[in-house]
Amino acid sequence: MMTHLMNAENFNHSNQIEEVYKENLYLAGLFQSNINDHWLLDIYLQKCLKIVNKGYLAIKNMITTKLQMNNIDKIRLDNLTEIKQTLKKRLFEAIYHNATYLFETGKYPQSLELYKQLQNKLEKHKHILQPSINPFEKQQINIPLYIVCYEQICRIILTIYQPNKEDQMNELLLNLNEALKYAEKSENQKLIGLCNKQISQVYQVHEDYEMAHKVAEQYFDIAERSNDILEKIEACKLLGSINENLSKLDEAEQNYITIIEYTKLLHNNNNTEKLSEAYELLAKFYIFNTNKYELAKLASENGLNYAQINETIIYHQLKLWYSISKSKLMEPHYLNMIIAAQYNSTDMIDLIKWKDTHCNLPIFDKDHFSEVTYDSFTKKRNEINQSNSTHTLNS
């Protein structure tokens, strides 16, 4: 570190602006990995920006002055022009590093402003590649910097404008469509898909379910074309939710079943956490939207089999869906047994045993129920008739 500090000082005395910039940028990189040193990273990145900006303006003004005075030969002009172009490139890099720092530290509006400034400057300099924070690194990142700017502008807008009911739908859509424009310029299919996902979610939050479904299908189509299984899973989750809103329950059911199939394919049946989450979605769908309690119970059981850690939200939700589906399936037998137990001692014993031990209730025999209730109702009817006859005789 001391070596680079001394180098920076020496280069500054000899007015080698680019070298001063490189030494300070290297020093900035030393503070990148430790979050407690980010305040130093910020200081050095701003210092780098000031160094190259001041140097670039000085060279630019020098060239302008000498040309006006007609006091420069061609060789000298060419040398100064080359230095100016080099410093301009370094200026773009310094803006990029500062914008990236602001993005990574959550200062999204400031970062967005810098990225947009840089993107405008790069329109005539599309040959410049994305720089490393280590200026002495020989291997360059082979991505045009203007493409990186498009992508980062898109990501920041997506981060700032999350779907919610509090913000006006038109404002959200205006900004998210701007993000989509930058994603399309970058030709980044994943980002285009994410823009469509978020636009669809805005329509869904504001209850325009038809438009939400239309844009969600575009999101799925992009994931399908790029064979991005992870994004296909996310698209199916979104489509399933919207189809529930539209009461298209068959389509929603298929969406949730497809999520399980994709999850198995993606993780080769090894990611038990993701599989338990997928089964939980299906079980929840059956509980809230259908009377398919047998399928809800099966989905819950499968999810619980994959849920290796017992103290997770998904595990407890699966236990809840399992208990609800099981109780719904048991309900007819339970009600029948309560009625029959009033007249039959064996049924009463089964009911007490279930209450005390939580063993499974026996499947209630319909013929037995009819026999018990018929006999009890016949007996009651005869008692009523006998009571009426006695009352008539007495009167």
TrEMBL record:
Name of the molecule in the record: Tetratricopeptide repeat protein 29
Its job: Axonemal protein which is implicated in axonemal and/or peri-axonemal structure assembly and regulates flagellum assembly and beating and therefore sperm motility.
Gene Ontology biological process terms in this record: cilium movement
Main localization, broad class: cytoplasm
This protein's UniProt keywords: Cytoplasm, Repeat, TPR repeat
Regions that span the bilayer: none
Domain of life: Eukaryota
InterPro entries: Bac_ResReg_Asp_Phosphatase (IPR051476), TPR-like_helical_dom_sf (IPR011990)
Keyword Cytoplasm: yes
GO cellular component, one term: cytoplasm
PANTHER family: TETRATRICOPEPTIDE REPEAT PROTEIN 29 (PTHR46630:SF1)
Protein's cellular compartments: Cytoplasm
